[in-house]
Amino acid sequence: MARSFTPKVVTANALVEGDVIYLTQDDRWSRSHQEAELLEDEAHAQLRLLFAQAQKGQIVGAYLADAKAGPNGPEPIHFREAFRTRGPSNYAHGKQEAGNV
């Protein structure tokens, strides 16, 4: 029996800054996981990933990450993805320093 599809978001890193970014429904890249497009259809998720991977001048390392619907937008399921939403932890600035965890 085939497994059911787990919803996903497209994530990558900004090519120049290296920040974690997420593909939005209107084809923007956002640094907020909550703005990401929640993909609930496997075929559509693959098309969105191909769209992202074609943007070699803006991003690097695009992939699909498991997510779930939350009250304020998609929420990460896996610890690794939750950790990525917090930004670098080895700097005294950025998301973690500002308390935007």
TrEMBL record:
Pfam families: DUF2849. InterPro entries: DUF2849. This is DUF2849 domain-containing protein. It comes from Albidovulum sediminicola. The lineage of its organism: Bacteria, Pseudomonadati, Pseudomonadota, Alphaproteobacteria, Rhodobacterales.
